[in-house]
Amino acid sequence: MTGAFLAALEKVGGVAVCCGTLQQAVACLAERVRGPLLLPPSPSLQRLDLAGQLRAAGVEVVSADFHQRAPAAGAGLTGANFAIAATGTVVLESTAEATRLATTLPEQHFVLLDPRKIVADSSAAVPLLRQLHARLPQTFLAYITGPSRTADIERVLTIGVHGPKELYVLLCEGVSDDLLES
Q1: How far apart are CA 146 and CA 160, in angstroms?
Q2: Residue 140 and residue 24 in contact, taking contact as beta carbons nearer than 8 Å
Q3: What is the pLDDT of residues 64-123, one digit of tens each?
Q4: Residue 177 within any structural domain of the chain
Q5: Residue 116 forms part of a structural domain
Q6: Domain span at residue 158?
Q7: Confidence (pLDDT) at 153
Q8: φ, ψ at 50 (rounded to 5°)
Q9: What is the pTM of this model?
């Protein structure tokens, strides 16, 4: 399923980076992030001490005061609950304001995704969505399919008007295989 996800992500303008280890993912982020990086709370990313590793690699990490600091951030980093191979879509529980800010304000959005969290299609996602809503009935979910795009200005496709201009999905085994954990 990873191959199908990679192909679909590329078609919608996203960039996949296969990272064999978490250290490679940190190095990739350190190389590509432009400006401060918003890092909202996430169970899997906190367990990995990603903020500490990124700071050690020279990345300016914003992990507090999101409302104040988000407008100046160059990038946001989130995990994902799961991804849909058929469309190249990343699905993320985004009820927390910090998560919504990290996925919409900066020009770059990075997603750290364990390849074991890729499901085939929307039908395969239905049981997961039911479980998410049973656990958190008042949940906001974001379906992120490529960089932000719109064609509502004179029918000209424009990237990045209503969100990030760049979407990177960093595939890294061992991040989290829990399909309900971001």
Answers
A1: 10
A2: no
A3: 999 899 999 999 999 999 999 999 999 999 999 999 999 998 999 999 999 999 999 999
A4: no
A5: yes
A6: 2-171
A7: 63
A8: -65, -40
A9: 0.92
The contacts of residue 130 (CB under 8 Å, 6+ apart) are none
Q: Which of 13-22, 29-38, 51-60, 132-141 has the lowest mean pLDDT?
A: 132-141
Amino acid identity of residue 141, one-letter, is: L
Residue 178 lies in a domain: no
Lookup result for tokens 């849909």: 84
Domain count, the chain: 1
What is the side-by-side strand order in the sheet with 118-119?
118-119, 82-84, 89-93, 141-144
CATH of residue 119's domain is: 3.40.50.10420
Question: Whose structure tokens read 């996602």?
Answer: 125
Look-up of token digits 């899997």: 44
Neighbours of 108 (CB within 10 A): 22
Block residue for tokens 């074991």: 116
Strand-pair partners of 149: 159
Q: Is residue 176 part of a domain?
A: no
